[in-house]
Amino acid sequence: MSNVVLEQVSRNFGAFAAVSGVDLRVNEGEFVTLLGPSGCGKTTTLRMVAGLEQNTGGRISIGNEVVSDAARGIFVPSEHRRLGMVFQSYAIWPHMTVFENVAYPLRVRRRPAAEIRDLVMRTLRLVEMEAYAERPAPALSGGQQQRVAIGRALVFEPKVLLLDEPLSNLDAKLRLQMGDEFRAIQKRLGMTTLYVTHDQSEAMSLSDRVVVMDRGRIQQVGLPEDIYRFPANRTVAAFFGTPNLLDAEVEACARIDGRRVRLDVVGRGWRGPCEAADEARPGEAVTVMVRPEDTRIAAAASAAGAGELKWSGRIAQTVFRGAVRSLVIETDNGRLNVEAAASQTYSIGDNVTIIVPQRMAWAIPKEEATG
Fold first, then answer.
1. Measured distance CA(203)–CA(208) in Å, rounded
2. Cα separation of 315 and 312, whole Å?
3. In the sheet that 4-13 helps form, which strands lie side by side, from edge to edge?
4. I want to staple 216 with a disulfide (CB 3.0 to 4.6 A). Which of 20, 31, 76, 264 is the partner?
5. pLDDT tens-digit map of 288-337
6. Overall domain count for the chain
């Protein structure tokens, strides 16, 4: 296995910077996901690692080898980087059987026939497709084709596995199942993996670390839960779900531990405590993020306890979503998105109180929030 290191990597198309100054290290055996909206630069970054695009700035290393350095004119072609790749389309050869599809990378490398047979069958067992070895590729389901594509990427024992939205063509249930199966294979092999998706839940469930990108730049790198709970800026916060982003002003600040501070803040018609990564001065403007699932609905005029935020309002909308019920509450501070248990019934027009614990409200400095 090998690590992957990107140092100030950029890709310009004329005056347009698709990727700008990306620094990233993927450690050996690590599963790292590039996450962001369409056009954010994640696929271009993956293609530069693959050697399918040439970076116009910076340096890319795989293991101990520099495979691309714009300043020194170094560019190792894709076929010499020993990478396994799986794409959104799978690119399964329709005129070949499952066995021949998986064997193809070995045949072009002129491996002996006996070795090909052993490696292909071992790989098919790994992806649970051994029984389909002689089946024509067009006779496979979408999930089976995805397994074949992964098997073909793994069969020649690549240094690194690269995947560009490999689950996006599957239905929701199969996408979840195949994601879990692929993650299990990756853990078992300890394969260094760089994965691209725009699906937030997919990134959260599969990754050791998540890299959130926007407009060609990395916005934040971290553990999935940290990215979700403690976003570095408004861009990261807003990308996941439908968070409530509330303007407020700091009244007081106190250090909780080495990682967090408590801020007492005041907004339009509300005040209370929240947490943040950095200290802030009284009078400083912040944006407070409250996720809909972290709210609690209480009876109208209920009092907040110590260490809680409170809003009073009226239910303006209610939508049953199966596992949860999504509500929109009209307050003096605008509309709040709230998620409640689906078993609870609420009516439009009901007056309610929304309560949020301090630890579930996260403040972002205003200058970062608007940047």
1. 9
2. 10
3. 16-26, 4-13, 57-62, 65-69, 74-75
4. 20
5. 999 999 999 998 877 777 889 999 999 999 999 999 999 999 998 899 99
6. 2
